[in-house]
Amino acid sequence: MTPEKAITIQSVEELVCKNQFGTFFGVPQDVFDRVWNNLCGPDGNSVVYISMEIGADPDTFHPVLDFLLENDFTTSGDDQTRHFINKYLHGPRKIPNYSGGLGVLAGDTLKSFADLQIPVLAVSLLYREGYFSQIVDFNVGQIDQATHWSPEQTPTLFLLRDPDEPEKPLEIPVPFYNEYDQPTMARAQVWMKLEAGEELDYFVPEFLLDYAVPSSPPWVQEAAKRLYNAKSTIMKANQRRLLGSGILPLMERLGFTARTLHLNEQHGVAVTLHLILRELEQRLGPDYHQKMSDSDILAAADQVAKRLVYTIHTPVKAGHDRFSRELYAGISHSTCQRILDLLARDEQSPNEYNFTAMAMRVNRAVNSVSRLHRDVTRRQFPDFADKITAITNGVHHLTWISEERARVFDAQPGLEDWRDDPGCFAKAALENDSGFRNNLARAWKRDNQTLVDHINTMLAEHRIQMTTTWIDPPNYLSYLHEEGVLQPGVFTIGFARRFSTYKRANLIFDDLSTLVDILIKGRYRINFVFAGKAHPQDEPGKTVLKVILDNQKDLFIRSQGLARLVFIPGYDMHVAKMMVSGVHAWLNNPKRPLEASGTSGMKAAMNGVPNISVMDGWWVEGYHGGATGWKFGHEGPIDEQSLSESPDALLYREDSLAFYRLLPEILDMFYNRPDEYLDRAIQNLKRNVPIFNTHRMAAEYVKKYNLRLTDETANRIDHFAKLYHSDPENG
């Protein structure tokens, strides 16, 4: 690899870069060429990161936009450059190709790869209808609508062009087969998101396959429209095939040579099938279909496994793709079915293919996303227990630390390098620095004001909405006019994540009488701010969301206005960033141990916000004996009962009572001992920022990638890897 070098950009025109696949904007030409050429190098010294969703909205992390504004590069005499500038300054700021934590984690990971200058390219799908747009009605609950967005107008996204006919978009042919082994050719346009590092001296290209083009069959176009489209099981299966089957054709068309493929969850595991088929052809010749034996398939799989790294993200059964053998017989080649019969068998359900089991079998390294999740995964997949390790998740600190907090960190002695090295918080003398304490408290106050202003503006808009549309505002406060507002400085608990039953969003409202008694007895004012989506096909999850709405009025009246419960519709990364920095505590109460990691609480910790959480996922590692927040709820062993998702096994009574016992202590500290509360915030910065960041996480992954790095990059990776060992027993 060419050594990294500092860059100097004298003019905005230097950010225009190009190759045979188009013209792009965001990094200088020499940076573009260096990255691209390395990804195409003959030694395959790079990685393909494969994810069904990637969350990286350019309204939460925007180094190119920041550069334009800081240098007052708001126009250009060159028409092409001026077009790009206008797009970045005024274009839409959403890429709604993510549903929640998995996709946002993928985006954060790629940002850290770019910051650390790791040779990675990413592959996902482009969904013309995004995930879905959420409307919330007070009486109905969640209403799902298609998302309408324009990738053509979105900054950081570029449609690749055909080198032979530059006026036309590039289309990648991807073959599929039916039950008669007859081929059907699908085609995909290719979008590239240029994920630039903060210094614009490196980037990670994220390629989004867009199958919703006229040249693809209707069933392909339909499956490609919306993320996690589950109108039917066959559509769900086809969407997974679109991802996995497009990876090798994309690599070959663009000239990429990566030796290692990283499956971020098993959704793209079909790429493994194609790698095995190629290995069989190389071993047995073009008529391998007739020659291959079971031992040949297993030998080919063992060879392919040397190229694959796999991350499993959930212990929840719904998160593992299973498809009936009968269904797959109708949508795949008979040779693929023979491979699946051996590698995707499900011991508990012999009539189904289990793609998580296949991903578990065919890899050189497999990891869970927290230490507790490692133990759960080993119990769920005992045949592979010996090779399951932990790499605890992180978040991209530059994305999730608020601008107000960032200004405090920039000015603080000892934190000069925090943007490049989140590990510096561990050594900084912050606890007894009165200036830092005051500045942090003021920044927190301003972030709380920003969140409150956003909510109050939303409530006012909903009051108007109720007279102009058929939607009943989702918040009881919208019906109260002057009284229906939030006040800054009131203790505010945030909760935002996918509405799935095991996450128990309504847990703390299980006994309103007990909750209200606590507030009235202490005359404590409190705000509860909730957000999140239920999957369109998850009716129980929608019911939980509706329970949140139904509790608003009763809670307000019975608490004499002390408690105010607000739901923010349309949860996305922008709302998340406001919440994790603007609340005073972050709530997480899944049924232990069903939350594999949970990254929203890490985002709060990046801002110093304490967590109130059950001992599940990352919080087992981030709790630090209570220095950074509070724990509550059941802490029993991992057994069949604890892994049950049955409604009668969700421990509502036990864990809600534990929360009610804890709440008075937290409220008393916040209102009466604010210095002690601030101590917990500072301990979050010192203890959790150095651990739960994607720079450290990326460094642990790089150790599994077997890449050849420059000395400078290797030293940085070693530094971040030493910040924390996710799995000491395998370190």
Please provide a written account of the structure.
With 731 residues, this protein is α/β, with parallel strands linked by helices. The chain has three domains: 1-138 and 145-268, Glycogen Phosphorylase B (Rossmann fold), CATH 3.40.50.2000; 397-633 and 640-692, Glycogen Phosphorylase B (Rossmann fold); 697-730, no CATH class. Helix content is 41%, strand content 16%. It is built from 26 helices and 24 strands. Strands 3, 4, 7, 10, 11, 12, 13, 14, 17 and 18 form a ten-stranded mixed beta sheet that branches. Strand 17, helix 13 (371-380) and strand 18 (388-390) form a beta-alpha-beta unit. Helix 17 packs parallel to helix 23 (652-672), helix 19 (573-582) crosses helix 20 (600-606) and helix 25 (694-705) packs across helix 26 (711-722). It is globular. The relative contact order is 0.11.
Task: Give me the secondary-structure topology.
Layout (H helix, E strand, L loop, with lengths): L15 E4 L2 E4 L3 H11 L7 E5 L11 H8 L8 H12 L10 H16 L3 E6 L7 E5 L3 E5 L11 E3 L1 E2 L2 E5 L1 E7 L5 E14 L6 E8 L7 H7 L8 H22 L5 E5 L5 H15 L3 H4 L2 H12 L2 E4 L10 E3 H5 L4 H10 L8 E3 H7 L3 E4 L2 H10 L7 E3 L6 H4 L2 H9 L22 H35 L22 E6 L15 H11 L3 E6 L7 H20 L4 E6 L4 H10 L2 E4 L11 H7 L4 E3 L5 H4 L6 E3 L8 H4 L8 H21 L1 H15 L5 H12 L5 H12 L9
Parallel strand pairs: 3-4, 3-13, 4-12, 13-14, 14-17, 17-18, 19-20, 19-22, 20-21, 22-23, 23-24
Antiparallel strand pairs: 1-2, 5-6, 7-11, 8-9, 10-11, 11-12, 15-16
Helix pairs in contact: 4-25, 5-6, 6-7, 7-9, 16-19, 17-23, 19-20, 23-24, 25-26
What proportion strand? 15-25%
Shape type: globular
The name of the CATH architecture of the largest domain is 3-Layer(aba) Sandwich
User: Please, what is the CATH homologous superfamily of the largest domain?
Assistant: Glycogen Phosphorylase B
The total count of strands amounts to 24
Number of separate helices:
26
